[in-house]
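We emphasize that the prediction below concerns an isolated chain of 293 residues; any contacts that depend on oligomerization or on bound cofactors are therefore not represented. The input was used exactly as deposited, without trimming of termini.
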Amino acid sequence: MACLFLPGVAFWSAGLLKDPITFGCIGYITYGFLNIFILKRKIVISLAIMIIAGLLLYFIKVYILLVLIMSLLIWLFAEFNKLVENKMLRNIFAGMTLVASAGAAFLLLNYFTSLEAAQQFQLDNIAGKAEEQRQLYADIALSQKGSHFEIATGNPAITAFSGIVATFYRPFPWEVSSPIILLSAMESLMFLSLTLLFMYKKGIKSFFTTPFSDPRILMSFVFAFAFAAAVGTATTNFGALSRYKIPCMPFYLMMILLMYKQKGLAYPDWFNKVLDFVVPKALIAKTHARIRQ
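Result of the prediction step, given as a token string:
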């Protein structure tokens, strides 16, 4: 459901362009990482897949690789943390691993961004690059009618928050200006509804603490929000943002659906109808039977 049947993701991933190639690379790298570090199987072939997909990401859209590296490292350290049985020690180890993963991610990001293809993504260049991109879209909006939108840029925290909101929850219905933007609006309305319902039922605090209970959710949370903040603050055009945000959309939906399951919260009726239409119950039962066998 999350990877194959999101309207905007399916539309922009339908052709042989950079977006579906990088989207596929994310899937292959995640698959290889899962095999090597979690399931400990198919080590050689998985390593080869990760190297090839990683090189493709590096030369096509290196910023995706940077965010993915950080997210996978946090996932790995979170898996190590699960091995600690004592709750107090686990909490201490969680803090240590979080610091260690953040430090390792920072060092790797510095290494990759020191290379020629990624120098524009160095931390001290990101803010200026994002401002340049926003101004470019504003100039285009003045010269022709389009789907330009504004975000708050008062301080870095507000800018990042505005970028996340733009990526996952906008365009709002009254901001739709074309059939393509309508696809994004449908996704955004679904994301916003599922998110607000979770916060209403379980509380706002639970939305931000639940990911730490499951490494898979934490990895999805980190990748989704870090990526959304990056593309949302640099892209103030709904048409362009519909393409750029493809990689983080499945991770956000996987995150929110896993959080529902983690908290024992039932999906809303309208979403169950969507699931039944997209993935019939008979197919789910058949898949579960094969897994048991």
